[in-house]
Structures are given as structure tokens and as C-alpha cells.
Amino acid sequence: MLYQHPGAFEGETYCPQIAKPRATSYSIFFPVDRVLLIISTICFLAALVRTGFALRTGVFRPGRFNFLAIGLGFIFQTAFLSVRGHALGRCPLTNLFEVFVFLAWSVALIYMLVGPTYRLSLMGAFTAPLVLLLQGFALIAPIDVRHAIRVPPNPALEFHASVSLIAYGAFALACIAGVMYLVQERQLKTHQLHSTFYHLPPLTDLFAAITRLLWWGFILYTIGIISGFFTGRPLPRIQLVAAVGVWLLYAAILQGRYLRRIAPRRVAALCIIGFSAALTLLWGITFTAQTHSVP
Amino acid sequence: MNLFCVGLSHHTANVETRERFAGGVGAGPTLRQAGCAEALVLATCNRVEVYGASEKRVSTDEIAQCLLQNNEVIVHGHSEALPFYRYEAEKCVQHLFRVASGLDSMVVGETEILGQTKKAYQSARTSGAVGPCLHRLFQRAFRVAKQVRTHTEITRGSVSVGSVAVDLAQKIFGELGNCSVLVLGAGEASESTARALVSRGVIDLRVSNRSNDRAEELAHRVGGRATHFDQWTQECREIDILITSTSSEAALLTPANLGPILDDRIDRPLFIIDIAVPRDVDPTVNEMEGVYLYDIDALRSVAEQSLALRRQQMASAEAIIAEHVSDFIEKISWELGRTSPIMGHPPVADGSLRASRP
Questions:
Q1: Residues 6+ apart with CB under 8 A from B291
Q2: CATH annotation of B2-156+313-335
């Protein structure tokens, strides 16, 4: 018997017998989209290997190669999302696999937009491992599951999900900049300067970047939360509380920064904590959504 | 055509000996008379070298004679004491590439030598002393030096206390144009550090000293402004960089008196360069949030780390050079229409050949 599930889309039917997601790959898209994603992952892997090799030889000079490798990886990511989105007839955010890839794409997108200051520094070297981790996990883990019911397009929900994920990308970059800040700060404090020291941006530039990325992320995240109320779908209370919790955490960081109550080092550390919390929340949302049939 | 290099450097000769041969800059015509088809003299404070190309062998004694100042004459048989080295063909090419890349310099990786080499080449080229052989050799040397600088960390970091301080300031603040600097104490060391900062763009420079006259003198010399000594703690609220070198016996800056100042500037780092002995700043100040304290030992330690990093990079640089040496020898032989590679002169007993290194 089909009936309207309280958490389902408007007009969507829900079948309790087949609602549990099947661990079936999107074989109809294989090899095109998956191959694109594998190529993209290889590009990010190349950037990482190059950085690792540079570290081993002591010549830490990311230069053009990293930027080109990440740029190429980004193009293949975009192609993957485009192919899958076309096949699904909606924004490809229907399972955890797609969410991870979209998040990795957002990180790469923000990295490409952040500006030449970071492209020439180690930002790319720090970005590639994160993207690789997200995509690598998405490819290896059995999370690319197909839903039993074809989900009708819901532009409001797609907007909510994609804007929120791009905000996550900005928070991820702020987290990376935070790591770079702490690495640089630690070296300056201890007077032990390593090869990385000479390639990291100045502390004040890094802090300015963290602040900018936090603002971008915060604004997009706010839009994402607000748009969540217009999806035509009731938000689970626990998800809402967690999302508002993350929003409050970032608001507190920005407020502390604005009032000059939190030292830059603590802001950098909080960026790492904030992103970890946001990532946990994202996992929780996607997991809950999957167990409730569709996002 | 045979390529060779004859010279002496800080490795083999003391400064008095180098001075005796420093007149070699204008030795081009004499070297040509001695049989060099092409000749270039590279004379810097650390080395005097002749790079030449000739059909017949020109002895080290003859070249040394050309380089001597004040019409001094080397008596044949007395030249054993002269610490000249001589490199032929491949070794000569390798030596020049090492010199241009800063590997043979007193401070490994210094870049001034490349500019001096370019200047020597230009000068020799203008006077017509450089032919196709040396032209190709030096052009390749400049390429190699650039590649070594780009692909290794050989020039990374600063190796003098003053430049280390400036580099650190740039790593904290980025552009120094917007930074305010307070120099506390009008000593020589603080003056040189202040000058280095001004040369990198610092505009707002304040000088404070117990003797206001000395503060004004120093401020005038470095292009800053003098402030009263009893106001320096107030100045600390506004500045970004503090250079201290007073002769105070007790620490002027402690966590107790710096704490209230930092409360007003939580999001702005404070870089303190303490070059006074005994120190003007309590070392525990470094543990405070946003404060980066470097005393003279810390600055020296950073300079040594940079030097160690440069030395670590020598193997990579040598590998680049080795690749270019074999390629150059092969190409120049082909370009100059020779069937055999560029050859060195056959070795002969040469009393002045004292320091021929591999």
C-alpha cells in the first residue's frame, strides 16, 4: 500500500516494503560518470603525490603543477556531477556518495575562487588531501546506493542542499587555512623553521583569509538553513537543532572575531573544530535522510 | 678549442693574496697576447678567475702574471707558493656552473655572485674578449643558475641576523608598508635592523632612547621620528614590531607590563626583536598570545637553520649541474663543428697548480 510519508516530498509516494535503500550501484551510469570521478581522483592524487615527493626532497614548491592538477580534477568532478545530474533529472544529491562528491567539488570550487594568493602558496597542497579523502571514501565505500523510488525534482530542496554544501566547502577551506595558520604560528613560536615555513603565506594574510572564508561560509549556510524551511518538507527536529548549533558556533566565532575577544590562534583552532562538527552533522543528516528513503 | 679556468678564491687564498691579483679586471688584452683566443676575468671580493678558450696551452704562470697588480713579476720557479687552481674542459664548465649557482660561495646559495658573473660577462663582451665558446658557456651558466634557484631551496632563508629579522617580520605581517616599528635604544645593531626594515618598505619608524639627542640622531639617519623614552610603553599599543637594544640591566618588558598592552590589540601580532645583551625582554613573554619574541640567539639559530637547509640542497643542485655539464659539452662540440668533444690541454707539470679540486 502506498501512502504519503511525513518526511517525503510533496506528492511523493512512499512504499514501506521497498523503502530501504538497496545497495545497488548505478550500473546504468557506469562507466561514464564513475570513470570521470576516478580520473578526477587521480588528478587530486597526482597533486598529493607531487607534494609528498617535494616534502621528501625538501623542495616544497607547489607551483603550477598543483594548481593545474586540482583544476583538471575540478573539471572532471564537474563533468561527473553534470552526467549524473542529467541522468537523475535533478541536482545529484540523492545519496551519501553524491553528497561527498558534491562536497569535494565545493572545496575545489572555493579553492579555485579564493584567489592567486593561495594558489601560489600551500593552500592547494592542503586542499588536495581533503578532496582526495572525500572522493576516495565515496568511491571505495558502498554508499552509492539507488533509491527504489525515482525522486521527483524539488528545486527548493536542491537549492537548500547545494547552497549548504557550498557553505561546507567554504568552512572546509577555512579549516585548511586554520591548519596552515597553526602550523605557521607554531614554527614562529618555537623558532624551528622548516621548509614549509617559506611557502606558507604570512600570518596576517592567513588570518584575513580565514575571516573571509568564515563570512562566505556563514552567509551561505544561513541562506541554506533559511531555504530549508521552504522545501515543502518538515525538517526533523534533531537535524534542525544540530544545524542551528553549527550556525551558532560559527556565529560565535565571527562575533568573537568582530569584537576582538578571540585571539587569531583560537579562531584558527575553532575553524577546525567547527568544520569537524559540521561534517559530523552532514553525515548525520545524510544518514537520517537515507534511512528515511530520500533526502 | 680548449676551455680552461685558472683562478684563486676564498677556498685557496687569503685576502692579501687575492688583492695582489685583483688587477686582473683589465687583463683582457694581456691575456690575448699570452695566447687566449677568448678570455673573461671574474673578479669579486672572494675570487679572481680567468675563463679562457685557446688553441694552445697557456700556462697558469702566464695567466697569473697577467692578473698581477702594480707590474709585479712572478719569478719563474717561485710561483709554487701561489694557490691557483686550474680546471680544464668539463671540469671548467662544472666549476663555472657551481660558481654562478652560488655553490662555491662563502655563503652557500648567495645570489650576488650571479650578478657579478653577468657583469663580468657584459664587460668582456663589450671589449670583444668573448667569442662563441665563452658566450655559449656563460649563457648556459646563467640558465643553470636560474634553474638551480628555481628547483632547489639553495637560496631559501636568510643567513644573517638582520635579514632573518626582516624575513620573519614579513612572514608575520606580509607587506611591511603598513607596519609601525619602535626602535628602543640607539645602538649600532638596532640601527642596522631598522635600516633593513626601512629598505623593505617600513614607513612608520619611531626611535626611543634614554638620551633623546641620540634618539633624534638615529631617527634622522634612518628616516624615522624620535619619541620620549618614558612614552615607549604607550607606543607599544600602536606598534607592530619592537626592536630593543638598550643597556638596561633588568628586563624592560615582562608579562606583567605587556599584558595590559596586549589586551588592546588581541588580533594584531607583536613581533619583538631583542638584540640586547643582557636581554631587555623577559623570555616568558614569548609564551603570551600573539607575541613572537626573538633574541639574538634565536635569530642566529634561524640563520643557521637556513644555512643547513641550503647545504642539504647542494646534492640536488649538483645533480642539475652535472646534467647540464654533459649536455653542454655535447652541444658545444656539435655547434662549433667539431667531431670530438671539447678537450682540455694535456696535463703538464705546473708548479702553480696547487688546488685542483674534482
A1: B258, B262, B269, B270, B272, B285
A2: 3.30.460.30
